[in-house]
């Protein structure tokens, strides 16, 4: 049965058995891990006090860091209806070797403006006269990047990867 504890004041208290203790105390709330990392609330995303600048998501992607440093010679011109790219120099004069591969890597981005810059930049570089001769040597580096975009779980990334593959095959043959 149940055991009764007698206190010095004469009050009788029933002691909880091990089964009762396990039912009333949640192992998730009592674990030291839960005390350190409580479950986030949906409003925490909007609260600036809960943003961790040293967290995993605070590190920019390789494409984002190249774009921020000015490694991609184009910027977005925001129109009223449609955005477009403004190139610092003509796309035909740009070296395809690092730029086309970086733009292809940017196809896996999920944040604006990186998604737009990578998609439009890739397309505009492939439309340049003589793009076929400049692109063929880069195929061994482009194919794995495009495969990664096609295998991405985000359907928009998959769509950008598929569009880029169609454009690339039209240019290269």
Automatic annotation (TrEMBL):
Residues 19-28 have a biased composition (Polar residues). It comes from the Eukaryota. Residues 16-47 are annotated as: Disordered. Pfam families: ParcG (PF10274). PANTHER family: PACRG-LIKE PROTEIN, PARKIN COREGULATED GENE PROTEIN PARK2 COREGULATED. This is PACRL protein. It comes from Ceyx cyanopectus (Indigo-banded kingfisher). The gene is Pacrgl.
């Amino acid at each position: 049965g149940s055991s009764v504890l007698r206190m010095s004041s004469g009050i009788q208290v029933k002691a909880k058995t091990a089964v009762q203790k396990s039912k009333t105390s949640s192992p998730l709330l009592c674990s030291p891990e839960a005390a350190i990392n409580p479950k986030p609330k949906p409003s925490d995303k909007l609260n600036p006090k809960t943003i961790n600048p040293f967290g995993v998501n605070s590190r920019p992607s390789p494409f984002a860091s190249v774009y921020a440093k000015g490694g991609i010679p184009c910027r977005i011109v925001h129109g009223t209806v449609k955005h477009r790219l403004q190139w610092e120099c003509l796309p035909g004069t740009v070296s395809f070797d690092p730029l086309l591969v970086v733009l292809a890597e940017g196809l896996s981005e999920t944040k604006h403006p990186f998604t737009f810059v990578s998609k439009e930049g890739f397309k505009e570089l492939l439309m340049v006269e003589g793009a076929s001769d400049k692109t063929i040597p880069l195929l061994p580096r482009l194919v794995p990047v495009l495969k990664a975009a096609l295998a991405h779980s985000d359907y928009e990334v998959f769509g950008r990867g598929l569009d880029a593959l169609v454009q690339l095959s039209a240019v290269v043959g």
